[in-house]
């Protein structure tokens, strides 16, 4: 119960990022509800027997009290489960309302880790062996020494970014959250292949020449929209050039084809 909220709390806490107050309040409600479902009755019986406070004279009464406590805890569990929808609604609604602020809060840690991965990608592939890294030079070796920690941080950040995307109902492809620049549609297809391919997705992107950057939903969507617009414009220019060439090469044939199309 409330497992997802607790997991997300741990994810952001590990990155030293405070979630919005509404999230904190919802999480406090969840923790209190969970605590209410934990009956100490069985442990109290155990401790009472060990300490000698439970005797043959009072054990029947103690067992009755424990049974009542356990039954109440079971009913509380059912009632607590009924609160999940409301608590989750407040919690994820607050993440959605503060999505861009949370992305901005993630950026310092992202940029620090990305700088290491970007340097590593410039010199060696994600599956490079030690000899290849040593042969790549001192900058490559320095990046390699810090690479494991950088990738561990990135795993936490990408987990947090995925939480934000889910809360926002963001349907843009995940790789668009992690690159910047102006790209054609073909380049974005390559980026997606690199990100989802074998090895570490962000290292693959850096190796392929993409610049790492943590994007908001709007920034990620703009990447996709810009690529689509540029591709459409390039196709229109190519078509116009083809038509112009056809006119120049065979004016009569072009005119006859145009009339036939009318």
Give an overview of the whole structure:
- This protein has 262 residues and is mainly alpha-helical.
- Helix content is 77%, strand content 2%.
- The chain is built from twelve helices and two strands.
- The chain has helices spanning 3-14, 21-36, 41-51, 59-81, 84-97, 99-123, 130-135, 138-168, 185-196, 201-207, 217-249, 251-261; strands at 179-180, 211-212.
- The protein has a two-stranded antiparallel sheet.
- Helix 1 (3-14) packs antiparallel against helix 8, helix 9 crosses helix 10 (201-207) and helix 9 crosses helix 11.
Short description:
The protein is mainly alpha-helical and 262 residues long.
List the quaternary state of the chains.
single chain
Average pLDDT, rounded to a whole number, is 90
Based on CA atoms alone, the radius of gyration comes out at: 30 Å
What portion of the residues fall into strands of 2 or more residues?
under 5%
Which structural class should the secondary elements be placed in?
Answer: mainly alpha
Low-confidence stretches: none
Give the topology string: H per helix, E per strand.
HHHHHHHHEHHEHH
Fraction in helix: over 70%
- Biggest beta sheet summary: 2 strands, antiparallel
Report the total helices.
12
**Shape designation:** elongated
Number of strands: 2
Strand arrangement within the widest β-sheet reads 1-2
Kindly report how far apart the N and C termini lie: 67 Å
């Amino acid at each position: 119960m409330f497992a997802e909220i607790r997991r997300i709390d741990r994810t952001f806490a590990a990155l030293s990022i405070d979630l919005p107050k509404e999230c904190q309040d919802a999480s406090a409600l969840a923790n209190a509800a969970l605590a209410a479902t934990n009956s100490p009755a069985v442990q109290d019986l155990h401790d009472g027997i060990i300490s000698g406070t439970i005797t043959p004279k009072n054990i029947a009464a103690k067992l009755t009290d424990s049974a009542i406590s356990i039954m109440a805890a079971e009913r509380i569990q059912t009632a607590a489960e009924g609160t999940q929808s409301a608590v989750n609604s407040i919690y994820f609604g607050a993440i959605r309302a503060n999505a861009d602020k949370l992305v901005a809060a993630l950026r310092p840690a992202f940029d620090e880790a990305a700088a290491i991965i970007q340097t590593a990608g410039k010199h060696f592939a994600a599956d490079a062996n030690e000899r290849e890294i040593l042969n790549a030079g001192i900058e490559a070796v320095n990046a390699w020494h810090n690479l494991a920690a950088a990738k561990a941080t990135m795993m936490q950040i990408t987990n947090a970014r995925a939480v934000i995307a889910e809360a926002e109902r963001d349907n843009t492809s995940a790789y668009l959250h992690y690159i910047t620049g102006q790209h054609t549609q073909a380049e974005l297809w390559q980026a997606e292949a690199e990100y989802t391919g074998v090895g570490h997705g962000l290292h693959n992107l850096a190796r392929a020449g993409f610049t790492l950057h943590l994007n908001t939903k709007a920034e990620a969507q703009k990447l996709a929209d810009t690529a689509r617009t540029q591709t459409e414009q390039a196709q229109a220019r190519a078509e116009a050039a083809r038509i112009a060439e056809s006119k120049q090469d065979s004016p009569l044939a072009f005119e006859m084809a145009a009339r036939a199309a009318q």
